[in-house]
Amino acid sequence: MNDILHFLIPALQTQYRFKEIQVISKNPMIVGTERGLKKIRFWTDERLLRKHLNWRRNLMNDRFFLDRMYVNQSGHPFIRMGRYSVTCHDAPPDRAEFSGNEALWASVCSVLLKRSRDLQSGYDRPIDLRTRAKFSFEQASRTGILSGEAGKLISTCYSPACARAGQADLLRSRHQRRSRSFIVPMDFSFRNCKALLGTLFVELGQCKPVTGYQALARFFLEQMVAEGEASLQRLFISLKKEGPPDRETSDLLRAEWFEPKEWFHLLTLLSNQPESNRRKEEIQAFKAVWDQKTRLINLFDSFFSQPDDGRKAGEDGGNFEKH
Amino acid sequence: METSRNIEINRILFHYDIFPLRLTDQGNMIKAETSAGVFALKRKKMTEKQIGRLYDVYPLIRSLVIDSACPLPSKYGDLVVKWDENSYYLMPWFEETVPESDLRERYQRLFLKAGQLHRQTMQKEADASSLYGSAVQMLRAQQSYWERFFNTAEHRVYPSPFEQIVLGYAPSALGYLQRALVFFSQNVSKQREGESGRVLRRALCHGRLSPLHIMIENEKSFLINFEESKEDFYILETAALFQQASVMLPPDGTEWDRLFRDYFSSCPASDEEASFLFHFLLCPRSLSHLINQYEGKRENSELWFTKRFIRLARGHDQLIRELEKYFDDQKQQKEEQEKEEQEKEEDKN
Questions:
Q1: What is residue B348's predicted lDDT score, i.e. its pLDDT?
Q2: Which residues does chain B have with pLDDT short of 50?
Q3: What ipTM was predicted for this assembly?
Q4: Domains of chain A (ranges, CATH numbers)
Q5: Crossing angle for the helix pair A158-173 and A148-156, nearest 10 degrees?
Q6: Rg of chain A on CA atoms, in Å
Q7: Interface test with B, best of A18, A19, A197, A204 (most B CBs within 10 A)
Q8: Which of B14, B17, B73 comes nearest A197 by C-beta?
Q9: B275, B266, B228, B259: which is closest to B122 by C-alpha?
Q10: Which of B10, B14, B82 is the closest to A62 by Cβ?
């Protein structure tokens, strides 16, 4: 990479008509110009770059900005430098707030869910979570690590965790066929979105596409934790106005929340470190996530319930706050 | 300017990496003064088809085939930026030196630019048989429309002043229509009898030629607003331009000969195209449109309609007379030139 840096700055100046340019950071590469900060991306796979170009073209809309490639003076969206294809992007500095911008976030979710789609060969994760839960629990029981407060909690929650795992398995099993699923680049995160001119600027990353339900489910959960239920409720109201999610989206988002990752995580911590000074915090974190997910599923279902959704979250595991 | 409007404009200008120092809203045009220069941001509702047409024309303008002002591409390469149901495009700002009210000068430039556009984008001849067929149908419909109006007006005990004026024009109108109908019908008949089909040339047509769609800065002038442009038989657009000018320009004092020379020196018409144009223009469309307005929702006074008819009829008569004279002169000049050349050849021999 260092070898092309000597040529990069003059090339950017010529190709993108920057008068002033200076490197602000190298990884990611941000340059300051008289027209603001710009992000420079290096691509080694031109096929992936072209895929990203089409992807961004599909997502063009009039509600928020999208991280698109600048065209150079010949009208091409990238410049070739040795084995790299180099693209130039906007790099707005301000982080996007969630609270107060729920309608805009709903637009982002809606546009991505509708248009960021491609053929994916089924859900690429192991689906037999219930068996995994059973196996992990039995193994932990045999090794005698389920004593203490955390161990008792694991045992108490074993049955609801199995029920949740089973529910996640069931929801995912409905969508095993090849279909045009919701995708995002592997390095995509809603948290990377920026605030720009009273709207959002969505960065689309530069990695290969992966199924996007995990990122979206994580985003909803994080916002529920950070901003509270009322804020997420406002987002769901806006999302419903934009057009409710389809069956696949609804099922696979719920499956993400049903999956008892926090239970597996606590069990792994117990197995790896039977004694820990941070155990109390870990238990609190487990309880908090478990409860937030229960509330999130109930909230989501109250807006977007589909016929034959199966049992509600509360029936599967209860809520620690009530106990 | 309103804050929300300002935000929207700033969002659009972000697509061009333009940071305005001053914005002046002039209706559908926003003047953006920036450190990089002065720009005109145009706002309008555009369909996907219209946007597509701009993209078709843009390469021709970039390659200097057409001398016109086209939207500047955004930093992402877009010619049009859509935001909240509006479409925007950015152009260099022109300080126009000819006011919009100076129709004489504007048409002068427009005739020249239209001719250049058609000439520069001219394609090969194409079969125009269906155009002749359509012309016959259109003329028959016009003929029966006028006859029906005359018949109704004639049978009134007291025809209105407007109807009286139209009745007075009946011989001219029917004469024009008959002459045009004979020309187009003969061509259609010849074709049916096995003669080869009629051919006319195709070219890029602007689609909205108007004195307001040309920017004039001193000696330079540029066509703008290409969103309706498409390839077609160019002579149809020429006819529409001539007819529009006959409606818009004052009947007295219009230098038709100069206008025709400007157009045809840029884009010479073949004999067939010249005949088509002349006969196509014979049909008094602007007058038919006025009668239609009179019969429909009459939004103006009787006096207004009467005066308007007199003005349009004079304009139409003058256009036809001047065009016929122009083509006759051209024909005569051509014959004289041929004769001279023939004499020179004979002298050589």
A1: 80
A2: none
A3: 0.86
A4: 2-90 (3.30.200.20), 102-322 (3.90.1200.10)
A5: 50
A6: 23
A7: A197
A8: B14
A9: B266
A10: B82
